[in-house]
Amino acid sequence: MTEHGLPLFPVTVVGSWSRPSWLLDALRKRQGGRMTAEEFDRVADQAVLEALSYQEEAGIDVVSDGEQRRDNFHSFVADKLEGVKLLTLAEIMDLVEDRAQYERVLQAADAPAFSIKNETVVDTIRPRRPLALDEFTFLRQHTKKPIMVPLPGPYILARSMWVKGVSDKAYPTREHLAVDVVKILRDELIALRDAGCAFVQFDEPVLTDVVFNRDVKERTFKCGSMSESTGDPSRELLFATRLLNSVTEGVDGIRTGVHVCRGNWSRKDEVLLRGSYEPLVPTMMGMRVDRLVLEFATPRAGDLDVFARYPKRKQLGLGVANPRSDEVESPAFIVKRATDALRYFEPGQISLNPDCGWGTFAERPMNTADVAARKLRAIVEAARELRRTVG
Amino acid sequence: MLNGIDVDGLQTALKAVGAQPDTAVARKHARVRWLDRLKFRAYVRNHQFEVDEPTHLAGDNANPTSMEYVLGALGTCLATGFVFNATQRGIAIGNLEVALESTQQNYLVFLGLGTEGHPGFDRMTAKLYVQADADPAQLQELWEHTLKTSPVGNSLSRTVTLTPEIDVIP
After folding, report:
1. Beta bridge partners of A318
2. CATH number given to B66-170
3. Structure pTM?
4. Which of A73, A167, A311, B34 fits as disulfide partner to A162, beta carbons 3.0 to 4.6 Å?
5. What CA–CA distance (Å, rounded) separates B79 from B143?
């Protein structure tokens, strides 16, 4: 057993589950103003229970609500915060001066401006509803298993929500906005702890954009986020670390983690970022979180030896299943990956998960629920094998 | 009403316009006045717009260049034609954008830095992104029809290789 009462090599998820078509219909109606929040929640309740059922039947140890109520892993905050609007890029281009940079983003993404939505600060932000406490409370009523809750990290929120020419009326810089973002996330973390949540994961996938797109000094579109950057990787990584540490510092009694991946919006590996975690490891080691939730199921992410200089310093959420493929990883493959990780981590420090969510973006699921469930069952089988041989 | 257009009113207007003897040649007038440096104001009917050059070419970058207006005019002409034809066929448009890209054969000729070829457009790509209440094949056919019947498209495609593309957004 681990120190948290879970079996060794506990199996969990990174957050999202593919949404059924009837939920997507309801989401579109909700976004189009043709369905109330209460009506949408009734539909989403059913979808959450289905996502939970898949996870429980697969036998995993820590479950999520599949982010079924969210449009994507970060833009959903527009519905939860006063002062934030979900604007299309077409709307943003009507409001800002430097339209040329957005045109470059659109060309690179080969996308129309009406299809990209960005949660954008238009006024001072404050909570309208909890970010995730209501999601947790609903799930708690329907499962005895420990629950993980994913939240967007403070860095991705500060980067994506602050749009020059729109947000600077409320906050002169994204650094000013970050102060309020940190407070809102910290309050949410404390509320989730007090409600009995087992694990909160902060999603910061744009950290890979910082180190792999280091020459980009303006906006990029990665992971569904229209992100503003200074173009100085060291400064950005320090900023991200300070923000996350300000959220978690002194909040005891709940485990926390940070999830970093290279994008999960396409099944074409060639359009996603690629590269080792090596340039990010020192930053992640400086973050006051318990667990690093990372992808290691495909060669795209590099190797585990990046932890050679930092043995046993953190818990590892080891990605062992590719959420973007139909082929189910064999338990033998998963056992091998975990065995590789044991060179740098104690058995009690390793949990097993897919590389990322199954449906990070509601409209662009990376897999079907059936394939996702089969992959989870393979991970569960591998975990049992590991407990027999390592435990 | 469809796509914000009064369909019955449009049909009535088309009948009236078609009966006018000069409609086919659609004669147009414009007047351009020099303001200062490389800034100009164009007057057409009761409208006006200004033209400038970027700062690296001795302008003030206060407005688009003439060539950018031509590129934009192609995009707006194609968008106008698509919505016009879609409305006549009873197709509701949800969202529509045209993304354009162009190259010029040898801009150095205009700058006096070269003599080979000409400085005009030699290639243009116009990609339509559309969300509409119709199947993709119908939208593809409509896009092709729009290209064939576009006034600006025809004005340019006689000398420019014009490549149309379409992306129907589900």
Report:
1. A294, A352
2. 3.30.300.20
3. 0.78
4. A167
5. 9
